[in-house]
Amino acid sequence: SVKGIYGKRIAWYENSMTEELESETKTLLEVQRALANREFVLYWQPQCSTRTGRIVGLEALVRWQHPRRGLVMPGSFVPVLERNGFIASLDLYVWDEACRQLRAWIDRGEQPVPVSVNISRADLYAIDVVSTFEELLQRYGLDHHLLELEITESAYAEDERMTTTVERLKEHGFTILMDDFGSGYSSLNMLKDVNVDILKIDMGFLNRANESKRSESILEAVVSMARLMDLRIIAEGTETKEQVDFLQSIGCDYAQGYYFYRPMSTETLEALLTQEGVVDLRGVLSPTMEL
Ligand code: C2E
Ligand code: MG
Ligand code: MG
Ligand code: MG
After folding, report:
1. In angstroms, what is the span from residue 95 Cα to ligand 2's centroid?
2. For the whole model, what pTM was predicted?
3. 3-state SS of 58-127?
4. Distance from Cα 250 to the centre of ligand 3, integer Å
């Protein structure tokens, strides 16, 4: 009967919702266990000069070194944690690890480049990020210019709290990056309200520029506008030589992407950094850095 079929559908729908909830709950429990076990590790992706290819900064990206599943990418657990408000416990761990690593490099006599970490909007509702970062810098004896903060574009939308927090972070001397710029709809308008230092152009921008002259012009216009506003730009998802040449030609000084380096483990990064001439401290992203 019709009713029978209908009833089955409802049953199926409820089942799949329950399964989803169960798997989210499972993820949350697993994450708590994994945090205690220190299963989360940082990978590092260099930010490079488009002119010289040299490293001017590093983005810290979290990975889950799962005992059975191997290396798990953030795409499969960060959104779950964001939805449930647990992302702050992971981010606290990641930010601490990033600072601890910076301290270790300095103690070994290495000249460190700035490291950028990601902040989720949900972090603001769980912790006071300003005092958290201040405490971290104090604990590890680091200068503000060594830690840069990436906040995804959509996190600013319709959220006073984010704008206010950015203002406070800026007052404390932190460098703020707007991540995934151009991925939303209100990108340009947002720039008048949010006082960021660096725009990270979403990789979709670069992909579209490959496809049409018009999209190329838009990217070029964004770079000019950024210059007028005294903003620096990093193009994300730079994968080819052609893209690097194009970025250079429109005056985009920095890029991050597979063309230069994929995100890598601490061990791989350290081996890379011992090579002569891969790091450019003069072209370093933070103008305040003292050499
Ligand atoms: P994101 O912050 O925009 O990071 C850039 C992402 O693009 C990274 O993915 C990176 O591996 C990838 N990528 C870099 N270059 C290329 C390229 O040339 N081509 C392509 N196709 N992709 C490239 P990943 O590491 O999987 O991270 C995904 C997202 O997860 C990040 O996007 C960020 O939003 C979030 N995330 C990562 N680590 C953390 C963290 O510690 N805390 C929080 N809250 N979010 C994080
Ligand atoms: Mg980022
Ligand atoms: Mg992002
Ligand atoms: Mg991004």
Report:
1. 13
2. 0.91
3. EEEEEEEEECCCEEECHHHCHHHHHHHCCHHHHHHHHHHHHHHHHHHHHHCCCCCCCEEEEECCCHHHHC
4. 24
